[in-house]
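Kindly go through the entry underneath: sequence plus fold tokens. Please state briefly how this chain folds according to its tokens.
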Amino acid sequence: MTLTESSICLNDIRLYAFHGVLEQERRVGGEYSVSIRVHYNIYKAMETDNVADTLNYAQLLKIVKREMAVPSNLLEHVAGRIGKTVFHEFPQAEAIDLTVTKLNPPMGADCAGASVHVHLINDKTLQ
């Protein structure tokens, strides 16, 4: 069997946070959704069935919650912090697909949210 691609995903994590350019957003806060896919080689975990051989999604959730708790003006900044922390704490991570969505943006439109999506590559795994 050949493994060609693998990842771990946390989908639509719902959080309350205090991000935004407007003072009201940072004071009152709002609802957010975060979805993250971390690409890494899961082959060893497939063979061993040992949690020590995988990227622990409970730890990944802690990272997302911790970084979302730090207020920022921009969702881009939040996404960058999450990415840097994931790569720091999980050096085996090869790439990240991350979407941070403000579910009720203050822009006078009826929409499902405003998002930032990034695809980040861990430069350390390119060597």
About this structure: The first strand starts at residue 7 and ends at 17.
